[in-house]
Structures are given as structure tokens and as C-alpha cells.
Specification:
- There is one protein chain.
- With about 375 residues, the protein is an alpha/beta fold.
- The chain folds into two domains: about 1-40 and about 75-155, Winged helix-like DNA-binding domain superfamily/Winged helix DNA-binding domain (Arc Repressor Mutant, subunit A, Orthogonal Bundle), CATH 1.10.10; about 160-375, Dna Topoisomerase Vi A Subunit, Chain: A, domain 2 (3-Layer(aba) Sandwich), CATH 3.40.1360.10.
- The chain has helices at about 1-35, 85-105, 110-115, 130-145, 150-155, 215-220, 225, 240-255, 265-275, 285-290, 305, 320-330, 335-350, 365-375; strands spanning about 40-45, 50-55, 60, 65-70, 110, 155, 160-165, 165-170, 175, 185, 195-200, 205-210, 230-235, 260, 295-300, 315, 350.
- A six-stranded mixed β-sheet has the order 10-7-13-12-14-15, with helices on both faces.
- About 35% of the residues are buried.
């Protein structure tokens, strides 16, 4: 009981501190108005030019570049609609909503925040937000501006991802055996901090992240996690924050190695890099998300020959795939000799390999019986 109370106090402290930073942001705006200055907010820039790859730590870090968002600026890509003035107003309204959530000690979803602000601006027919595609980036702006994750601000995304394996956890006070999760696994929540999720006991030797839920289902159905004593997890494609943070915690706290199994295409490469080095958008939180020791076990552009995949099976690269691959080639965190060789080889072949290609062998279990075990046994991975 004492431990749970202490964890609850820690969570509340974190949210209170986030609330205090929002107040400071508001106070700075008010001070500008009182001085008859154009009020503005400095938004840390979430762009490739404002991050650096810390080779020693193996993670992406945010630099100190900012973009000034001011109230009296009507400049924008689409005139008034895309103006700084509108975005300034939207930023203030999102910050206000976050402070309300903190003060009331409740949480809500990204979707609900959008609907709560799909209302007219004061004495106007203009809405604060028309689409959620507008509100989500502003929430990220507020996050980086007050150095707090959206979960600390009281906003969460729809849970995406599942896990199964030899581990018992405590989830919000409920003890859960992750070996008895049926066909669907335990749904990974958005908030996985120690005050919510505790690791009670485990016998796992490693973590295997599978890119797709459909392939995760194959691994779960074949009880790969039981035969190979691992935690089996997926994030439904690009893993969401909850999945990445949970893997980071298991890696750091339980000392479990992390292996990543994704499609052989530029998007699969990037998913791996987000797990390993962190993302550009969340560079300010790489310390709590990235796993520099994560290893890429496939698929590799060399696997078609190594595993005798018929020539007609690989899919041709689309123009968008090629463009993205060339972009990734220039990223500082893909400059190792091994990764340059891997990506250039994929481009030279002009094809991509999906995890499903092994179905062409007439054995739907080939990926769990042969491919993944062989990769792990031979330590055939990129680091």
C-alpha cells in the first residue's frame, strides 16, 4: 500500500510540475501583453535540422532551435487560415485544456480534445479546430514547449499494440499473467510508467518486436514466445509511445535484449531506427524511449537469396519507396558501413520483401519455425 501511495504521489508530482510549466508559459504571454508587445510563444522546432545524432549515447537529441509563433502575425501558407495568429490561438487553447485536465486530475483522448475545441472562436463563426489533423500537431507543440509528454498533460492516444510472454505484471493494481492472454494478448496501454505498470516476475530471455499485428498473431498462435522464452510484442506498424516506452523499461529495468523484425523496405528500416535511436518529433524524450542496443534481425535485402525466395515474390519498389530510401541513406544514424550496404543493396535490387513472403514456401509456419530461429541462432542481425 505504501509503495502504491508513493507511486501515485510521484505521478501527481509529475503532472503538477507540468501544470506549473504551463502557468509559466501563460504568465510570459500576459507579461508581453502588459508591456504592449506582440505576444508570442517560442516552439522548439521538431525538424531534422534541429536534431543531432549523439554517437556516444546512440540516440537522437533535440537542439535549441525554435520557431516564434506570434499573435499579430497573419503570415502563413494559406493566408489567414494558416497564419501564426490562428496557430498562436490554438496553442493557447490546447495549453488551457491541458491545465484543466491537470487541475481536475483526469485524462482524456486526443480525439476528445479535438471535439472539445471544435467550437467557434469567441463571437465568430470560425472554429478553433476543423479536423483532428490540426489539433494533434498543436498538442505536440505544447508538449515540447513545456517539456512534458502528452501523457503527463493528461492526453492519451488510442491504445495500439499487444504483448504476450513469460511475465507477470501489475497493471493499475491488477495482477496479470502474460502467458494466459489468449489469441489477442495483453493490450499495451498508452501510459506504462512505473506508477501504472510494475514488473512482478519473469523468465524471458529477450524481447521480440514484430512490426505487424497480423504476423504477431502467427508468432503468438505458434507459441514462439513459449518455445524461445521471449516477450513477444507488436505496435501495429510504427510502434506508439506506450509500446516504445514499455520496451525501454523492460530493457533497462529487466536487462532484456531487444530484437526488431520488420518488412524489408524503407518504412521498416525507419521503424527500427525509431526504436533504436528515437524519433525526430520526440527527440526531447529519447532518453526515455530509445533503445540504442536494439538489433535488427530482418527482414534484410539479402534474405531473398539466403532463404531461396522465388524471384516473382518480392514486390517492386515504388517511386515513394525509392525516395524515402535515399532520404534515409543521408540520416546520420544510418551512416555505418553495414547499413549503407543494406540500403544500397535494396535499391540496387529494386524490390522490397514483406514478412508474409515466406507463405510462398507452402508453410505458413516457416517464419516461426525456420526464419526467426535461424536469424537468432546465427546472430544474423544489424546493430
Amino acid at each position: 500500500m505504501a509503495r502504491k501511495a508513493a507511486q501515485s504521489r510521484t505521478a501527481k508530482r509529475s503532472r503538477v510540475e507540468a501544470g506549473n510549466r504551463i502557468e509559466k508559459l501563460a504568465d510570459a504571454i500576459v507579461a508581453q501583453v502588459r508591456k504592449h508587445n506582440d505576444p508570442f510563444v517560442d516552439i522548439p522546432s521538431r525538424t531534422l535540422s534541429n536534431v543531432r545524432f549523439n554517437e556516444k549515447k546512440g540516440i537522437i537529441e533535440m537542439l535549441d532551435g525554435t520557431q516564434k509563433r506570434s499573435f499579430f502575425s497573419l503570415l502563413g501558407r494559406r493566408g489567414g487560415e494558416g497564419s501564426q495568429a490562428k496557430k498562436f490561438m490554438q496553442t493557447v487553447k490546447i495549453a488551457e485544456k491541458c491545465k484543466m485536465l491537470i487541475d481536475e486530475d483526469i485524462t482524456t483522448s486526443l480525439r476528445e480534445v479535438f471535439y472539445s475545441l471544435k467550437v467557434p472562436v469567441h463571437e465568430s463563426k470560425e472554429l478553433i479546430f476543423y479536423e483532428q489533423e490540426e489539433s494533434d500537431p498543436i498538442i505536440e507543440d505544447v508538449e515540447v514547449s513545456v517539456a512534458s509528454l502528452r501523457e503527463e498533460l493528461g492526453i492519451h492516444a488510442e491504445p495500439k499494440g499487444a504483448m504476450v510472454g513469460p511475465m507477470t505484471i501489475v497493471d493499475s493494481g491488477d495482477t496479470i499473467d502474460l502467458t494466459a492472454m489468449g489469441s489477442g494478448g495483453w493490450q499495451v496501454p498508452s501510459v506504462v510508467e512505473p506508477e501504472v505498470i510494475q514488473f512482478k516476475k519473469h523468465s524471458a530471455a529477450f524481447i521480440l518486436l514484430v512490426e505487424k499485428g497480423t504476423q504477431w498473431n502467427r508468432f503468438n498462435q505458434d507459441r514462439f514466445w513459449e518455445k524461445h522464452n521471449c516477450m513477444l510484442i507488436h505496435g501495429g506498424g510504427q510502434p506508439p509511445r506506450g509500446v516504445r516506452r514499455l520496451m525501454h523499461r523492460m530493457h533497462k529495468e529487466l536487462k532484456l535484449p531487444v530484437y526488431v523484425l520488420v518488412d524489408n523496405d524503407p518504412w521498416g528500416y525507419y521503424i527500427y531506427s525509431v526504436v533504436k535511436q528515437g524519433s525526430i518529433n520526440l527527440a526531447f524524450e529519447s532518453q526515455r524511449m530509445a533503445i540504442p542496443a536494439a538489433r535488427f534481425i530482418g527482414m534484410s535485402s539479402y534474405d531473398a537469396d539466403k532463404f531461396n525466395i522465388p524471384k516473382q515474390i518480392p514486390m517492386p519498389l515504388k517511386d515513394e519507396d525509392t525516395r524515402r530510401a535515399k532520404e534515409i541513406l543521408e540520416y546520420p544514424w544510418f551512416q555505418s558501413k553495414e547499413w549503407q550496404r543494406e540500403i544500397k543493396h535494396m535499391l540496387s535490387l529494386g524490390v522490397k520483401l514483406e514478412l508474409e513472403v515466406f507463405a510462398s514456401k507452402g508453410d505458413f509456419r516457416y517464419i516461426t519455425r525456420e526464419y526467426a530461429p535461424r536469424k537468432l541462432k546465427e546472430q544474423d542481425w544489424l546493430d
